Amino acid sequence: MLSRLRRIAAGDRRAAAPSPWDVDAFLDVARRSFVCVQQAWDRADLAALSAFATEPLFEELRTQLAERGPLPNHTEVIRIEARLLAVEDLREAQVASVEFSGLIREQQGARPMPFRELWMLARLQGAEPSWRVARVQALS
């Protein structure tokens, strides 16, 4: 299954996604989640961030928000692309690596700027089936 998903992520459409995996649907949800996380960050909405993030990442975000202070934040996602790079089945969790790229505006009236990030999404084996953001890394 994993090698088939890697071929799909690389663009080989002859390799059909194995059931129950629907890569296009997964990436659609991932793109929407990216936007929702940005909006929750802008509002400093800890409840929303905790719904999207694993506990360790949520604690990092909580610390960063405290350092940011009460200043308003504005993030506008102009264009977003998502690419599934890999899926790994670990003993306690399944981990998906998704590369996001596109255009983002971080100040009202500013020019949109390109961005590229790697998000690690995880879901625990045997637990609720929702994916949560475990790690975010800016790519150059």
What order do the helices and strands come in, and which of them pair?
Blueprint: H1 2-9, H2 23-43, H3 46-52, H4 55-68, E1 76-89, E2 93-105, E3 113-124, E4 132-138
Antiparallel strand pairs: 1-2, 2-3, 3-4
Helix pairs in contact: 2-3, 3-4
Please give a structural write-up.
This protein is an alpha+beta fold and 140 residues long. The chain is 36% helix and 33% strand. It contains four helices and four strands; from the N terminus they run H-H-H-H-E-E-E-E. It has a four-stranded antiparallel β-sheet with strand order 1-2-3-4. Helix 2 runs antiparallel to helix 3 (46-52). The protein is globular, with a radius of gyration of 16 Å. The relative contact order is 0.16.
The helix content, as a percent range, equals: 25-40%
The proportion of residues in beta strands is 25-35%
Order of helices and strands: HHHHEEEE
Note the total helix count. Answer: 4
Please state the overall shape, judged from the principal axes of the Cα atoms.
Answer: globular
Poorly predicted tracts of residues: 1-19
Could you give a short account of the major beta sheet?
4 strands, antiparallel
- Helix/strand structural class: alpha+beta
Question: What's the mean pLDDT score?
Answer: 85
Compute the number of strand runs.
4
